[in-house]
Amino acid sequence: MNDILWLTMRKMRLPLILLLLVFGFSMFGMMLIPGIDNEGDVYYLNFLEAAYFVAFMSTTIGFGEIPYAFTNAQRLFVFSIIYLNVATWLYSVGAILGLFLDVRFRAELAAARFRRRVSWIGEPFYIICGVGDTGEQILLGLNQRGLHATIIELREDRIHKLELDSSMNKFPMLVADAGDKDSLIQAGLNPEHKKYNCLGVITTTNDDHTNLKIAITTKLLCPKLTVLARCESQVVAANMASFNTDYIIDPYQIFAERLGLAIQSSVKYLVQDWLIAVPGTQLRKEKPLPNGHWIICGLGRFGSKVAQQMQQAGVGITVIDVREHLLKNYPSSVHGRGTQAETLRAAGVADAVGIIAGTGDDVDNLSIIMTARDIKPDLFFVARQEKSDNSILFETAEIDLIARRSHIVARRILALVTTPLLRPFLEYMIHQKDNWAERLAHKLEPILKGRAPNLWLIDINGIDAAGVQVCNKLNIKVKITNLSHNSRFHNEQSLSSICLVLERGGQRIFLPEDEHEIKEGDRLLFAGRSRARRDMFWTLSDPNRLLSNAAGVDLPRGAIWRWWYKKRQHK
What we know:
Blueprint: H1 2-32, E1 35-36, E2 42-43, H2 47-58, H3 72-101, H4 103-120, E3 125-129, H5 133-144, E4 148-153, H6 156-163, E5 173-175, H7 181-186, E6 198-203, H8 208-221, E7 226-230, H9 234-242, E8 247-249, H10 251-264, H11 266-276, E9 294-297, H12 301-312, E10 317-321, E11 333-335, H13 341-346, E12 354-357, H14 362-375, E13 380-385, H15 391-396, E14 401-404, H16 405-418, H17 422-430, H18 434-448, E15 454-459, H19 466-473, E16 478-479, H20 480-483, E17 497-504, E18 507-510, E19 517-518, E20 523-528, H21 530-541, H22 543-551, H23 559-570
Parallel strand pairs: 3-4, 3-6, 4-5, 6-7, 7-8, 9-10, 9-12, 10-11, 12-13, 13-14
Antiparallel strand pairs: 1-2, 15-20, 16-19, 17-18, 17-20
Helix pairs in contact: 1-2, 1-3, 1-4, 5-16, 8-9, 10-11, 10-12, 10-16, 11-18, 19-22
């Protein structure tokens, strides 16, 4: 607010001084020149009459001569000052317009409005730094789950795009450098932990060093806040880790690990993909990766990590790259560009089962895929996509597996932020046998019906624990199946959901049975349809509904009737 006042006074100082001088001169001149009233006596305008006349004269409203018709002397003076007043007012109005068009003034107004909106947020929220393709997907996911966020973005056009979106303009947005400490504090990063209820900072800018600066600033000012940072450089990632950054998300490493999982177990890869997909999207069909020799084109940050994972999985690979020094660590390699048919033939594409186009250029990756398809159409095609604008091209190319950097980062961050129990569940599944993942897939298929599930977390605490507390007082056990029962109907219809994890203290039970008892303090992770989520929370909102489900009968409401029921149970 001080900056706004300073800019206003700086821009309007001269116009205000001129306006006051001209107005005062005109007003006192009108007071000193004698006039004549209706009786022919000499009359002098008083202060109010003179100020009133000069005000409507200088603004060209033109009410006429007051309180009596002017003498020639008065009219001559008015004639001399009218243009002076009009010119001064026009100059002042122009200065006001120039003030509001000033870039710094508008930025200060936007910052003040942003700080005010942040202070009005009454719910826990995250600070999102950078709203490119990745940040926008994260915002969509948070919005779908009813979570709040504040946004810092350097590019004004991105902010304007979000402001035009009716589902996004509810989030406070600031055009600023997210790496600046003051910008983070304005967005809700409060070192004193007194005013704002910020849950953490999510930084997804395209610059690793900016993400590093944001992570370091956050951890130094608020060490307890959760920081989720995107990073593709091993050196920067190590620096982030030294400052205790909670989650360092490397999209290429994540994809490489998932590709390694797909090679080892297609069913585990499929179930993992279902659970991390955007809710409501079409589920991926199982398509096992073929066993045999693979070709990797490009040994940059993406290709090198994919090659490492495939070597660890025992898969034979041949790498292609134009940088000869990168090929020294690979026994089977070809120097050249994968876009050329001669290079692919030299790499043994005729005997390969799959090819991975992993260069940093989308056009080159598409060219590699099309060239390889002309030589051997039945290959398994994997391609790296950098720009979201090229999605239609990659989909038209009918590529079996596409590594979209923005999707990978957004999925991982949303999983960590909205469903913290999902990551340990997926890690547990990876270490199980294939038949465990197959059993889970058979349970999910009839529930999901071809669409990616919603995931939700239930904490049996506070208001949500009221129904469990009432049941405990009546010595009635509450089971998972009681939560999954459709309370809107009196039949035995169950909700389209499945409990993935039950956490009790330091113990976690994965895929618990429906008859497992629920206790106060438990945390449960469910997967299912959005309608099931609404109905489940609807059941928890009224203790009587959960009580009726657990008891198997419709129980009366009210403390007196429950006391009577409890007394009968004892008898």
